[in-house]
Amino acid sequence: MANLKELASRPERLIGGHRLCAGCGASILVRQVLLSIDKPMVLSNATGCLEVATTIFPYTSWAVPWMHNAFENAAATISGVETAYRHFKRQGKIDKDIVFVAFGGDGGTYDIGIQSLSGAIERGHRFLYVCYDNQAYMNTGIQRSGSTPYGAHTMTSPSGKVIPGKMQKRKDLTMIIAAHHLPYAAQVSPSHWRDLNKKVEKAISYDGPTFINALSSCNRGWRHKMEDTIEILRVAVDTCVWPLYEIEEGILRITYKPREKKPVEEWLKPQGRYKHLFTPKYEHLIGEIQKDVDQRWERLQKLEGCFVGEKDK
Amino acid sequence: MVEKLVITGNEGSALAFKQIEPDVVAAYPITPQTELMHNFARYIADGLIDTDLITVESEHSAMSACVGAASAGARVMTATSANGFALMWEILYIAASSRLPIVMAVVNRALSAPINIHCDHSDTMGGRDTGWIQFYAENTQEAYDLLITAVPIAEHPDVQLPVMVCYDGFIISHTNEVVEVLDDKTVKDFVGEYKPRINILDTDNPFTFGPLDFHDYYIEHKRQQVEGMKHAYNVIPEVFKKYEDVSGRRYEYFEKYRFDDADVVMVVLSSTAGTAKVVVDELRGEGLGVGLLKPRVFRPFPHDKLREALKDKKSIVVLDRSDSFGAFGGPLFTEIRSALYGIENPPEIIDFIYGLGGRNITKDELKTAFMKAVDIAEGAEVKNRVDYLGVRE
Amino acid sequence: MKKGWKDLPIGGIIEDAANSRNFETGSWRTFRPIFHEERCINCLLCFIYCPDSAIIVEDGKMKGINYFHCKGCGICAKECPPKANAIEMVREADYAEKES
Prior knowledge:
The structure holds 3 protein chains of 3 kinds. By secondary structure, chain A is an alpha/beta fold. Chain A is 37% helix and 14% strand. In chain A, a hairpin with a 2-residue loop joins strand 7 (244-248) and strand 8 (251-256). Chain C has helices at residues 45-49, 75-79, 92-99, and strands at residues 31-35, 55-58, 61-65, 87-91. Chain C is an alpha+beta fold. Chain A binds chain B through residues 40-42, 44, 51-52, 55-58, 60, 62-70, 72-73, 76-88, 90-91, 94, 96, 98, 115-116, 118-120, 122-123, and chain B through 23-24, 26, 50, 52, 54-58, 60-61, 64-74, 76, 90-91, 94, 200-203, 206-214, 217. Strand 2 of chain A pairs parallel with strand 9 of chain B. Chain C: Residues 31-60, 61-92 form the 4Fe-4S ferredoxin-type domain.
């Protein structure tokens, strides 16, 4: 595990001058992931904010080989690159070790890209897929995705007079991916950089597909102050809205347990996308959201309990 | 060394794939392409070639993985049909626009709906503007030969474009024919060692692939892409000539059959041309001055060469195995008619849409088509310039 | 001068990696982070939380802010430990007035 002094001594892979919004969570996450990898790397990127804002021709913010193909195929694309790499390595035409990382947003991962990702994982390519999950299609102007939480306002699930935002619960992508029985899957938050760093290091150590789901705020879509990006992600972890855990070789471990689980209001209140929940008409939904968070958190702890002592066997 | 084999179109294509021995193939099963990949997978399983086969979960991912592997400097091939081709659509454009010399066999099959597994050209004709070079093969021999020539054409430094080699589903893909094949070394030497333009694995020289263009650069990139196709127009005959030197088989943009002294000409792609040659012979026997022209290259479309060849004919009958709904005629017809625009006393031209969804085309139907053009050549009025052949009313 | 199609690299690639270092996004700022080196404890949290790779670190020490890229989001100031409080956000207009 690297400390900040060491991370700061490594070359920056995502350079400034990109056109991501001020206070964007995606670039913080990507920097943390890439600084955690102290090896040559090749990246693939699904269509999305991260892709468009970092590569506006003729400018690019990427200091490492980077490719974008389309929206739904970052995993399939990197699987092609990785196959060519293995091919050339076997033939002795390349000798260095290269780490392959694919980035996609929640739209490109939970929704349109889930098939491509599932296929690439099942085929066993050696790559790390990082989903930067900001819980909606932000690049196209804040539309609801399979990751948008219950009750959140987006442009296609607006809070109106009769419908209070998105009325469906988000899917649990990390568990869906874990069901592929890949060597490593984890949830991270850039607010907890040390946890993130450790998980990335673990992920890339495996000779196979690995997956990291990272909560990433979008201050335009979540409607919070731009300086609050890290704070809000921290609150997501402390309310157990976004638990930090890993599933390593089948064994689930929660990597951070808040000393005191904060009430979900602390997560909802600073975000304009939940503003309608703090009105008399819709405030009962907060209880429902709390119940759901509690259930998921308890279930996760129970699951962890199943594996107690497993590692020592 | 030349060997004669009795093989199907898919077996012939698989053999071409094997002899080319690409670095990476990514493919997904679809009828009638499947046997090609069965054969190819067996070559790998038996250790006869060192290709990495990515058995993807969809054609969209097949083409996506091809783009990934090609960007990593690999020689890449794939194969598909019909709906699979349609699913690749988005990435077909990206492959061409990114100037990646991927070679693909397309076993032509009708598009849904209704779902149909048999031959027509609606799949690849729909993809004619994707930026790929398109070859249409009459038979297994041509499919085999054109696949081999496709590699140096695609990879030529001035071209750098993907090539699809199309042949008719079932009619060719599943039919045994006598085929002359080259030995492995001849093919290997002919395709040569691949020298990729870019390699994303070169971490010492990083570049960004697939950035965002706004209105200030997009059209320049498109204009540049056009240039690749223009170069291909000159490179194709050069490569065909080289192939003639090693195989003895001569390929050109189009094949002429009893053409030069014909007044009335049929223009048709792929396997139907074989039947049409028989019909030409029979009608010649009846004293009619008919002939045939079979284009092999649809993109780049040899408009000037076709105009020169067809300008003095009295009438032309085009056969299209796909429709272009709402357009005036099928894709082949509109291209040829456009090529003839502006010349003095152009030949009359009519079109028949035929054979959709694998509907068999008979000699009698081809005769009917010919006779309509013969009548027009003799002064009959053109009624129903675009018509249908072999359809129940 | 923007290049014409004859001079662009083939296939839309950008050959000059990381060239956005020459693209200014500092003009986006309405607030300017002012770094007070004497208060800094070099925890480097500003570095790991900066979305614009705009924190300058030399030999493990925070050395200042790259104002050519900094968009003034204020995350660095917010995440700077309260006991240090080494980064202060000031309105760009006020800063400009003060400087002149």
